[in-house]
TrEMBL record:
CDD domains: beta-trefoil_IL18
Lineage: superkingdom: Eukaryota
The keyword Glycosyltransferase appears for this protein: no
Any one biological process term the GO annotation gives: positive regulation of cytokine production
Organism, scientific name: Certhia familiaris
Cellular localization per UniProt: Cytoplasm; Secreted
Protein name: Interleukin-18
Chief subcellular location: cytoplasm
Keywords: Cytokine, Cytoplasm, Secreted
């Protein structure tokens, strides 16, 4: 009697021949993410203000920036790391990092006193993420008719988006829950 191949054996299929002529196999784990490309961008809100990160003050806020300040660009030139995904419906998985004073900081979310807060921590963004990660956001078009603007949904808490909140004179970067089907301009960002 012939041996039947197990379903697992059938699933592993060679995908590409690498530059070193080694055979690579596709990761079959659905939620594993692998870095594909990096975009270098500034992030603007609806008021055309730029997102500026100040790690020393542990704050990120949208500010009016002069051309001169933009040239020196401290804390406002972001690397947007795009990851390959097997579930494109959720949006393109991205992670954000920013250079300040020759150090790299990545953006992540942490729960503090029962509330989700945005943090910038020193370090690099990983090339591969095995499963869930508090640095991953799903990049989605802001509305179907507005393909040039985006909103970023936190991957570990659906319905929570990057947004800004007025706090005194600051327009601070926060995570905000989106009520169903409403259009919230504080979540609208252009790259």
């Amino acid at each position: 009697s012939r041996l039947k191949m197990s379903a697992e054996e059938i699933l592993v299929r060679p995908v590409q021949l690498g530059k070193d002529f080694c055979l690579y196999f596709d990761e079959l784990e659905c939620d594993a993410l692998c870095k594909e490309k990096t975009l270098h961008r500034v992030l603007r809100n609806v008021n055309s203000q730029l997102l500026v990160v100040r790690p020393d003050l542990n704050v990120a806020a949208f500010e009016d920036v002069t051309d001169q300040e933009m040239q020196s660009g401290k804390g406002m030139h972001f690397s947007i790391h795009c990851y390959k995904t097997t579930t494109p419906l959720a949006g393109m998985p991205v992670a954000f990092s920013v250079q300040v004073e020759n150090k790299s900081y990545y953006m992540c979310c942490e729960r503090e006193c029962g509330e989700m807060t945005i943090k910038f921590k020193e370090g690099e963004v990983p090339k591969e993420i095995p499963g869930e990660s508090n640095i991953i956001f799903f990049k989605k078009t802001f509305t179907s008719c507005c393909s040039k603007a985006f909103k970023f949904e936190y991957s570990m808490e659906r319905g929570m988006f990057l947004a800004f909140e007025e706090e005194g004179y600051l327009r601070k970067l926060i995570l905000k829950k989106l009520s169903t089907d409403e259009v919230d301009e504080t979540m609208k960002m252009s790259l």
